[in-house]
UniProtKB/TrEMBL annotation:
Residues 73-96 are annotated as: Disordered. Residues 27-100 form the Transposase TnpC homeodomain domain. It comes from the Bacteria. Residues 173-460 form the Transposase IS66 central domain. This is Transposase IS66. Residues 467-504 form the Transposase IS66 C-terminal domain. It comes from Desulfonatronospira thiodismutans ASO3-1.
Length: 518
């Protein structure tokens, strides 16, 4: 606005000053938040300024404080629990042992009285040693046979016979299931790019190029492709599907620039006792979730991204929100405060009430309540707390500027409220989508090392491997042992039942060998 053309009306001037003041507050908050994001702590840990409690079911959160209740508030009694004393974990018994004997000298075995000492026992101290990995070469020796009596005969009775080569994951390559499992585990579990693995192998005396490694991984991924449809069927069988997505840069995406963002989607569902994690690559952030769950009936749980709204409008689908995302918005407000030791403010009040909800959830887990009982207690204890939060949100929304950080948090919570409280309707549901975020975190951590995918086919192969290893981990399987078992037996699988038997959801962990025995 041109300051030379300001209106003469005092009320109009006040309105202009008020608008600029609100904009100044908004820009200052935004600047503080960006500075906090760049230079501040990334944890959701709250400042120490009162009683400390452990916040359950919130990854990355170490401690929190709860507001001191007034005498008029209802007191919630949480059962006591015991905590195991921490100490050094024992060395696994299946690791090989090497005995190093330390004995006395001949002179030291003689007692001052002149009699030789008799052994009465021993003391054993165990210490871990490390032996660098070593490569071995498997020689497949196939014996040939021929009939000397038929040698030179015109018919083929004297033809040479030789034992067939066993089925191989990559028939023309030198890679074995063990080496393939190691390469995939290092890349998609440990986040070690292929070029670093090449350097490691070179130190062990073998020169394998990065392009060869990529070729092996792409070939194995094509062999594993049938698992994608099987995993999707497993997810559709569950009562709930959790959804999340994270960006990934793909360099050679057709029709798009190298700076365009593609997305890796994650779906978590299936039977609660045998969960399934499915990664799916898509060049955009819209459309995939709706297509993927086209025929699904049940609960879906997600954050507040607008693309998920269409899912909630479909008949038979009940959209559940994420309380953790609501909490995160108010944590951003608290982090902006320079006086973090000061207890008060709307954001702090909301966080304290959310804390009570999670303490209740922890008590349900501690007491191992069944879903029906959890639903009853949520209706009795959680709903009143949620009503307190809603009342507070409605009141403060009238006096808080929409563009302020607090106003953004309040509006987000109000817009998502109907979905956020829906978890109280079914005891099997969780108040947040953290399990899916935990499943997508390994991809985000690995992305910091390998940065991008070179081609859409590489991104799809990565989605396949992440689906296998994350589902294996969810079902209590050690990733390397599972992948080795899979690559050894996958060439023999001819039917859908054979493939299903190799899925991590249906393999007993006891069947797989220990990694030290592989």
């Amino acid at each position: 606005m041109d300051i030379n053309n300001l209106p003469d009306d005092k009320d109009a001037l006040k309105d202009i000053v008020a608008d600029y003041h609100q904009q100044l507050i908004y820009l200052q908050e935004k600047l503080n938040f960006l500075q906090k994001a760049i230079y501040g702590s990334k944890s959701d840990k709250k400042p120490k300024c009162g009683s400390k409690e452990t916040w359950p079911m919130m990854p990355g959160l170490v401690e929190m404080e709860t507001e001191v209740e007034t005498p008029q508030e209802k007191t919630i009694t949480i059962p006591e629990h015991s905590r195991k004393k921490r100490g050094r974990k024992p060395i696994p018994k299946d690791l090989p042992r090497k005995d190093i004997i330390h004995d006395l000298s001949g002179e030291e075995k003689i007692c001052p009285c002149g009699v030789e000492l008799s052994p009465i026992g021993q003391e054993v101290s165990e210490k871990l040693d490390y032996i660098p990995a070593r490569l071995i070469v498997n020689r497949y020796i196939r014996l040939k046979y021929a009939c000397k009596n038929c040698e030179g005969a015109e018919d083929d009775q004297g033809a040479v016979k030789i034992a067939p080569m066993p089925e191989q994951l990559i028939p023309q390559g030198i890679v074995t299931p063990g080496l393939m499992a190691h390469i995939i585990t290092a890349k998609f579990v440990d986040g070690l790019p292929f070029y670093r693995q090449c350097k490691q192998l070179l130190r062990l005396g073998i020169d394998i190029s990065r392009s060869t490694m990529v070729s092996w991984a792409m070939h194995a991924a094509r062999v594993c492709e049938p698992f994608l449809d099987l995993f999707k069927k497993e997810i559709m069988l569950g009562f709930q599907v959790g959804i999340d997505e994270t960006p990934v840069q793909v360099l050679d995406e057709p029709g798009r620039s190298n700076t365009s963002k593609s997305y890796m989607w994650v779906f978590l569902g299936g039977h609660p006792e045998n969960p399934t994690v499915l990664y799916d690559y898509h060049p955009t952030r819209s459309g995939l979730a709706l297509d993927f769950l086209q025929d699904y009936q049940g609960y879906i749980q997600s954050d507040g991204y607008a693309v998920y709204n269409d899912l909630g409008d479909k008949p038979g689908i009940f959209h559940v929100g994420c309380l953790a995302h609501v909490r995160r918005k108010f944590m951003d407000v608290v982090k902006l405060s320079k006086k973090q030791k000061h207890k008060g403010g709307t954001a702090q009040e909301i966080l304290n009430l959310i804390a009570k909800l999670y303490i209740l959830e922890q008590s349900f887990e501690t007491r191992k309540l069944k879903p029906d009982r959890i639903q009853e207690e949520r209706q009795e204890k959680s709903i009143p707390i949620l009503n307190q939060i809603k009342t507070l949100l409605d009141e403060r929304s009238k006096t808080t500027p929409d563009k302020s950080k607090l106003g953004t948090a309040i509006n987000y919570a109000l817009n998502q409220w109907d979905r956020v409280v829906r978890y109280t309707l079914d005891g099997r549901l969780r108040p947040d989508n953290n399990l899916v975020e935990n499943a997508i975190r390994p991809f985000a951590l690995g992305r910091k090392n390998w940065l991008f995918a070179g081609h859409p086919n590489g991104a799809k192969a990565g989605a396949m491997y992440f689906s296998l290893v994350e589902t294996a981990k969810k079902n209590g399987l050690e990733p390397y042992a599972y992948l080795r078992h899979l690559f050894e037996n996958l060439p023999l699988a001819k039917t859908e039942q054979d493939l299903k038997a190799l899925m991590p959801q249906y393999i007993d962990p006891e069947v797989l060998p220990s990694p030290t025995a592989c």
